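Q: Structure tokens for this one, please.
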Amino acid sequence: MSEQRKVPFFDYPRLFLDDKKELINILEDVGARGAYIMQRDLVEFEKKLANYTNSNYAIGVGNATDGLELAWLAIGLKKGDEVIISSHTMIATASAIITAGGTPVPVDIGDDYLIDVDAVANAVTKNTVGISPTQLNGRTCDMESIMNIAKSKGLCVVEDAAQALGSKFKNQSAGTFGDAGSFSFFPAKVLGALGDGGGVVTNKKEIYEKIFQLHDHGRDPQGEVQLWGRNSRLDNLQAAILNKRFERYEKVIKRRREIASIYNEQLSIIEEIQLPPAPVENGDHFDIYQNYELQAENRDALKTYLANNGVGTIIQWAGKAVHQWEVLGFDIKLPKTEDFFKKCLMLPMNMFISDEDTYYICESIKNFYRK
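A: Here is the predicted structure, written as tokens:
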């Protein structure tokens, strides 16, 4: 094995240090204009986001969780309304539904580790009003099947696309299939700010108008209060940073897919691990690899071995699916999801790792299983 390297899971200081001069210029420009809240930088970013996703409308919000909640509030979720979600998701997918007044109903995952379409169909009851599929790790669900269920049952669809800006299913962007979709610009996301941030897209004018009002104290664009709202506006400085980083976004996606290709090529020979789908150019799915999450036998020992060899990994969300947080009132069993969380592990996947780093990680994993 080659000499030990240091490959952190994510090198947060480099988000600033690698672009220090550019970021300081942005700060000086925004500060000199006094452009702190809802200025032209935000307007420009919202236009870019709408155009990039081929959506009619986009609104910058405080974070992706707020985006989900605001979307459900705009739809009119009320007490007793049930929304079907994948249990393999961040707790925010469920908490947004709770905070908006509804009840999340977690279901199991399919073979692709995303929400199981058959489980969705079987979970529909007389109280079901919506589905909130999570476009996870940069991969979009089988949205054709999900939308067929939604249309046949008269259900709303709000996509948790926090990890999927640029991901597509059958050449349609994540976040654009249903009534609304929410994206995250958390620093470690593929398009990341230097703090929290989010965006909501929709093709429905009435939902756009309601979300706009809700996110700015209930005010419409003319400043007239139309309803009770809150403050969840994307910070204008963060919007300016995102505008600049959007310019190279396609190169970022291309690079992440290159890293994923190396992982898949090098690790596919190891029988003890299951890999995510490899990048394809002309298939139904176009994945952006927000994360590279595999399943590994003897997962905990592998994680320790990699750490001892300088490689950072994480087990997402404290190693629990949504329904496994019994303190929140869940009391169900979802066997595929539970088995997944016994084995899942994320390898470094970001712009800071080189090809050499990636090969080193793969060689370290091979050495672990050879032993």
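A few notes: The CA atoms of residues 124 and 153 lie 8 Å apart. The chain has 13 helices and 13 strands.
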